[in-house]
Amino acid sequence: MLRIAFTSDLHFDGTGTLTPAQEVRRVANEAAGCRPHALVVLGDIGHPLRNFCDCLDTLCGRAPFVGVVSGNHDVWRDVAHPSRSLWESVLAAETRARGLVWLEQDSIVVERTAIVGTMAWYDYSGAEPSVGFDAARYAAIKPQISNDAHWIDWGWGDPEFAQMLRERLVERLEKLEADASVDRVVVATHVPVFEEQMRRDPSNFAWSVANAYFGNPRTGQEIARFPKVRAVVSGHLHTSVRAVVKRQRLPDIHACVVGSDYGNPTWLMLEM
Q1: How far apart (Å, rounded) are the C-alpha atoms in residues 266 and 258?
Q2: Domain that residue 253 falls in
Q3: pTM flag (> 0.90)
Q4: 178 to each of 36, 163, 173, how far by Cα in Å?
């Protein structure tokens, strides 16, 4: 039985304002106690960079493989690093320097199962259908809804960046489909990618608008094309979800969201 532990949205904060170090250690100890083959961290690990690094130090050695996916908070600029540098080099370097796997580019393969990762940036395709899709509108009102608008300075538009990540993920999945040594694929994302992972409340207008920044179903449509994909686990929502994505003539996909919240991190185990 293959066991993969997932945690997300740890928001490690050495001062204890967001998530105290002892709470991250608790989650790490609980997950490690179940002896997973791999532990995967699904983003929003810590900001600024020192918190990101301190959190990774807490997770080192908790499983034979520890994989890391970036979250939107992890690429918020800080006094020393703009968002683009964090995304393109700094976070990957800090992850690899600790012997961990930067899943945005590298994969974990264990028990003929490949684990790949992507931040899966939102592209507004998760917007509430009753509100309607208008990319220009969601870009314009983003400063009122999401702090990403104030803290990310890389210059890419959200749909543009999301498309870039989607194309990279599809390229990796295509290679894994052709790899005879891999039987199954697990996709780790920060942003949820399936409708089955989304939280909908059309009666709550603020929440309905915010869903434009909480999901990326376009990426989910691409992932669902690949027969070897059997599970997708995401974070970002701060609420727990376990669902199944049905596919015609292909195996179902288990779709989960780790429900960590500020000060109350959690984890889940995927057994295959």
Answers
A1: 7
A2: 3-271
A3: yes
A4: 27, 23, 9
